[in-house]
Write a structure and sequence with these properties.
The structure holds two protein chains of two kinds. Chain A is built from seven helices and seven strands, in the order βαβαβαβαβαβααβ. By secondary structure, chain A is an alpha/beta fold. In chain A, helix 1 links the parallel strand 1 (7-11) and strand 2. The radius of gyration of chain A is 17 Å and the shape is globular. Chain B has helices at 3-17, 38-52, 56-59, 69-79. Classes of the chains: A alpha/beta, B mainly alpha. The complex binds NADP nicotinamide-adenine-dinucleotide phosphate. Residues 12-18, 36-38, 64-66, 91-95, 114, 141, 143, 186, 188-189, 191-194 of chain A line the site of NADP nicotinamide-adenine-dinucleotide phosphate.
């Protein structure tokens, strides 16, 4: 990596997959800007740990991504503070589940707002900055649920499938400007989002996976690091599935 | 540099970088006939946001992107005060 650290914005980096991505990228020398509503204890610890080691750096930017109208100012302020943005990882999402027939409309709306509308608008403003630079990498965190069925996740699935379509067309739109756009599709991960899964459901997912286990957040974080790195310079508009063979 | 000159300067730069030739930039020329395609215009708006510190198309309630060069320049002139 060159002398000047590359800035990467990671949304939902206070816990779960986002935090694992932030850790991995800082270890790889990036300057990571972690967006979430609250600075969790593990994120605080990760920031302290990064300050002790001489790798990249990790910064917290508090923001509620549900506030879509405030996104332009968020991006403007971050650029002022950190300079050009090299990467964007759209990871923040909510995972409301339940039978669609009885899911409250406000929950459906929240799913679409946070998982689809917000990352699209955030990408709009970040990609502009990348366009001005003539370089950049975008990684959208989708899910295998975006292309396989799971009862109770219809609305969530729609938001994740949307990000896959978004990835492919945006890759075409901005490719000429040196910007790569890709997605990762994790299988089930043990995070707060899936704590509602019963032991039996978890066992079933494991039984169905080719590798007879779940992928973990570090597996997915490695995939994200790869897509941001120079080695992935010729990869764009694709989906990298990390699911221990669940959908094989 | 005036807002208009800044815009013209940046248009020339984007055209150069994208290997395009700019036509005559009279006020009534359609933006898409200026020589820049929609992607070039997007880059232009991004660059102008940096140079002029403003993006009139986010702050305004008008959902239509301006059609002519003159309207485009006006959007920036209005947005700056
Ligand atoms: N877990 C899985 O099995 C699984 C499988 C496939 C794909 N995924 C995808 O992986 C990504 C991460 O999921 P996860 O399991 O790590 O979820 P998680 O543990 O619930 O973490 C979600 C993150 O998003 C942030 N967030 C939530 N609402 C926000 C808001 N309004 N504004 C800003 N930040 C907000 C949270 O921080 P705050 O609460 O502090 O705001 C948190 O950092 C998601 O895109 C998910 O769809 C997960």
């Amino acid at each position: 990596m060159n002398d000047k650290p590359r800035n990467v914005l990671v949304t939902g980096a206070s816990r779960g997959l986002g935090l694992a991505i932030a850790r991995r990228l800082t270890a790889a020398g990036y300057r990571v800007i972690a967006v979430a509503r609250s600075k969790s204890k593990p994120l605080t610890e990760a920031i302290a740990a990064v300050e002790r080691d001489a790798h990249g750096s990790l910064h917290f930017a508090p923001f509620d991504l549900g506030k879509v109208e405030a996104i332009p100012d968020l991006v403007k302020n971050l650029r002022k503070e950190f300079g050009p943005l090299y990467g964007l990882v759209n990871n923040a999402a909510v995972g409301h589940d339940g039978a669609l027939a009885v899911m409250h409309n406000s929950r459906i709306e929240e799913l679409v707002r946070l998982n689809t509308l917000s990352p699209i608008v955030l990408t709009k403003y970040v990609v502009r900055a990348m366009m001005a630079e003539g370089a950049g990498r975008i990684v959208n965190v989708a899910s295998i649920i975006g292309f396989t069925g799971y009862s109770g996740l219809a609305a969530y699935a729609a938001t994740k499938a949307a990000m896959l379509g978004f990835t492919r067309s945006l890759a075409r739109e901005v490719g000429r400007l040196g910007i790569n756009v890709n997605a990762v599709a994790p299988g089930f991960l043990d995070t707060e989002m899936t704590h509602g899964l019963t032991g039996e459901q978890r066992e079933r997912v494991i039984r169905r996976s080719a590798l007879r286990r779940l992928a973990d957040v570090d597996d997915v974080a490695n995939a994200v690091e790869f897509l941001l790195g120079d080695q992935a310079r010729s990869i764009s508009g694709t989906v990298l599935t990390v699911d221990a063979g669940t959908t094989a | 540099m005036s807002i208009k000159l800044t815009i013209m300067d940046e248009m020339a730069r984007v055209a150069r970088e994208h290997g395009k030739t700019l036509g005559q930039l009279d006020d009534d020329v359609a933006l898409l006939d200026s020589g820049l395609d929609s992607l070039g215009l997007a880059v232009l708006v991004a660059r102008l946001e940096d140079r002029l510190g403003l993006d009139p198309f986010t702050t305004s309630d008008d959902v239509q992107f301006p059609v002519t060069v003159g309207d485009f320049v006006k959007a920036y002139e209005h947005g700056s005060h």
